[in-house]
Amino acid sequence: SQSAEVKTNIITLTRFLTEQEHKQKHATGDFTLLCHALQFSFKSIAYYIRRATLTNVSSHRLHTFHLFQLTSPQLIGLAGSSNTTGDDQKKLDVIGNEIFINVMRGSGKVKILVSEEEEEAIIFPGNGKYAVVCDPIDGSSNLDAGVSVGTIFGIFRLADNAEGKPEEVCLPGTELVASGFTMYGASAQLVLTMKGGDVNGFTLDNALGEFILTHPNMRIPKKRAIYSVNEGNTVYWDDACRAYFESIKFPQNPDEKPYSARYIGSMVADAYRTLCYGGIFAYPADKKSKKGKLRILYECAPMAMVMENAGGLAVTSDQRRMLEVVPEHIHDRSGIFMGSYDEVQKVTAIYAKYD
Ligand code: AHM
Ligand code: MG
């Protein structure tokens, strides 16, 4: 028939989390509540990014790609409304960071929060058991062009005797209890994984205001001839790195086609595409960025966990398993290669020849 079928039994993120909680014998509900808070921050950020895009289009002035500060507690008074002046503008990445911090504080479940935007770890009073690490709006240099950006997050369960010191969150990705990211694109896509679990994708239904499970048990294809790297850095790469990218661009075997290049420059979007289609994403350490560019705690490790749980791999520039790297400082960086299992193995095999 012509009439669209109405789905009356959808799995929202809320329902998904409840079902997960019921599978855990000793669950207290704290983790579930923390995830509820997290999803609210994603929804808010998604909303403000959409608003900013609208403002930008209607004003025809790139400079207005800011939001006006909310001076009242109501969700009105955004860009375009009266009684606001240019002085009240706040950059979207600042807003994203503030939303994240306020929501995490309000959850009552977090003791330590690390944000890319904050020099120091934020310690909340109270008896939160969790540490949350995040990059609230990654890829923000893309915002003015309306290109997808995203939030990356990881959750650690702190030791019972944790005092709330920044060094207590300098943990390897193997200790993450959950991680994921939300990509703010044509729609907001939330990808979530828990320790030892599947990777599940949710799409924000703007009308319902709910994340709906649309991509259950995401698996990254075992291989795919797509590479994603900032090739403008080639001059800084070491020999192994150059040899690898040469090998996929100029295949020796006549049956093999050269790889396609795809680089958005927004890690969440590049990683999401890699997860969906397969291939490899890299931000190698090089002569200019000796430790790479991306941050271990809230960029590399959460993504590595998603990739591994989806059947892929993630390694550092010295070909160690990304998830086992212990950062010395909360903002430490690492080179990274991640994506399809076979593609990352190829990288490791070539690096082994240059050891
Ligand atoms: P940011 O945290 O300052 O936004 O930088 C991180 C971003 C990633 O999203 C992306 O993968 C990378 O920087 C792109 O860097 P480059 O412009 O050097 O290619
Ligand atoms: Mg970032």
Automatic annotation (TrEMBL):
Domain named Fructose-1-6-bisphosphatase class 1 C-terminal: residues: 220-351
Domain of life (superkingdom): Eukaryota
Enzyme class: hydrolase
Family annotation (Pfam families): FBPase, FBPase_C
Pathway as given in its UniProt record: Carbohydrate biosynthesis
Gene Ontology BP terms: fructose 1,6-bisphosphate metabolic process; fructose 6-phosphate metabolic process; fructose metabolic process; gluconeogenesis; sucrose biosynthetic process
GO molecular function: fructose 1,6-bisphosphate 1-phosphatase activity; metal ion binding
Keywords: Carbohydrate metabolism, Hydrolase, Magnesium, Metal-binding
Domain Fructose-1-6-bisphosphatase class I N-terminal: from-to ranges: 74-216
EC number(s) reported in the record: 3.1.3.11
Catalyzed reactions per annotation: beta-D-fructose 1,6-bisphosphate + H2O = beta-D-fructose 6-phosphate + phosphate
Record family assignment: Belongs to the FBPase class 1 family.
HAMAP family reported in the protein's UniProt record: FBPase_class1 (MF_01855)
Subunit structure: Homotetramer.
UniProt protein name: Fructose-1,6-bisphosphatase
